[in-house]
TrEMBL record:
PANTHER family: BCL2 INTERACTING MEDIATOR OF CELL DEATH (PTHR12044), MEIOTIC DOUBLE-STRANDED BREAK FORMATION PROTEIN 1 (PTHR12044:SF14). The gene is Mei1. This is MEI1 protein. InterPro entries: Immune_Signaling-Apoptosis_Reg. One of its GO terms (biological process) is meiosis I.
Amino acid sequence: LLFPVSNLCGKCRPRDTDLLQPALNFLYCSLHQTTPCSQQRAVAVLLSNVSLLELLQKVLECTWLRSPPSEPAYLSPEDALLCSGWLLVASLLLYQHRYNTEVHQTLSIDLTEVLNAVIFRKKKPILLLVSIMQFLRAVLRQNFSSSLLVIVGQNTAQGAMQPQPSPQDAALHPLATQQVFSLVVSLQNLLVHAQLQKYLLLSQAVVACLETLVEYLYVKNQEVALHVASQPWHRFLLSTLLDEGQKSFLQPEVLRLMTLFLRYQSSNIISQKEISQVLQEAAETNLAELPEATSCALHLFLCQV
């Protein structure tokens, strides 16, 4: 089925949402819900389809061309297609890297536009933000070095008139230091917003993106990474997340954030008392009844401690 569906996608235009939406979702599910052996073949099939990749390029570019809806939570058919496109490309990045699959057509991505989509939001629907953050995580985990992607943007342009980047910016290339700080502040604000509005999917995506960003920074420039991890605003962020009543320390997002602060030695963010409270709550809980996400987050926290 991958052959006819991917070929059908390649013959479509981005405005053919009724056809493309289920087709891209089918391709996405085919990648994620198959055996490892079949998964490798599926990636090869999709990455060898030049028409499909050209279509995905056009779909992603529509993200910056569309006017934002009046209500950011509203997901139009066009926005739903964008979500599918970003998620499929993020998955292709992941599996192309895993299997070192040959690439027949590259995708060109404007990094500044991707970052600005998260930093400024511009009334983008929650699901579209989550999808773009999934893509951002994928490129961060690969250090922007995927053979499937060509990264463009103001920090990648070459020319005689370009000012010499600072040592910090050069170390973080293609990111700029100011972009990193703006992105961190926006992720913090998004997490508070997600907590207040009970957007669980957004909370999970933001924490995962923050984790991946700090990991990327630590490889590139440890000083910047430790500076980001020890920002005083994280203290307020943690306090906001903990304002949830009983067993609040055993929320997956809280545990993952605390693990992140412990990993990068942010003693000004998380105290010994709070570590003890987590251990106390865990001791009083039937661990077998914990949801899988909480159980995994608690395991990582305890290993870090």
